[in-house]
User: What shape does this take?
Amino acid sequence: MPELPEVEEVRRSLEPELLGVPILSVELLRGDFLTPPTAPLKKLVGHAFVRTVRHGKKLFLIADDGQTLLIHLGMSGRVDCVASDSSLAKHTHVRFALASKRDMRLRDPRRFGGAWYYQTFEAARVRELGALGPDALVVTVQHLAHWKQTRGRLKPRLLGQKDVAGLGNIYVDEALWLARLHPLQRVDRIAPERLGALVAAIRTVLEQSIRSGGTTLRDYRNVADQPGEFARQLQAYGRAGLPCLRCGGALRGVQVAGRTTVFCPVCQRRR
Ligand SMILES: [Zn+2]
Assistant: This one.
């Protein structure tokens, strides 16, 4: 499942293909991929996307007149940039033909993703980002200062998207291992220096993954159809029973908030 680093990688690789290049035509091949289904997608013709914004796992493409397309990669969504005369891959739902003789094509075999249309980025922001915390790549200790006055356990809070947007199971386990924090640590009892370590670990893990092209557990490919390499660098996720790369003790696998969770019982003590 694409997580923040994969979406960020898609965003970065889309920009040179997309920004400032006029849209010649838009073709919706599968109506229910778009919300609302009657959105005036064709109004994008003659315009160009001039800005991209990613917040958590949501990717916004913003046109020169403000029209905004939100892309959700879901479980298996793909954004392909290919020559306009290349044959249409299976499960292509939307096709943008660009003046560069290249297409941007939205594909999604398993259909948990989709595209949302908004007249303005402001409308999209209010509707889509209202309930989300700050993006995980820019979250600071100040953003989490209110944890002192709240109840909750660390991993469920990080997965909940309201405190921090964009963290999924893999990156939470990796960040907690790096910051030496127990997944069930009470958030109101995290010492200030540990909170600093958590914020730094989140950024380190995400940036490492972005640099290596995402995690790729199953379906993910970037716009150039390359898989990510980060899976090889995972230090906690998927390693239950194997030695901790820091202390040598056996990593433990448990269920937290219904998700498989791996941590080191020696390095990540509950405080
Ligand atoms: Zn350890």
Summary: The two ends are 32 Å apart (CA to CA). The helical segments are 4-18, 121-129, 154-159, 169-179, 192-211. Residues 244, 246-247, 249, 264, 266-267 surround zinc ion (CB under 6 Å). Residues 2 and 220 are 6 Å apart (CA to CA).
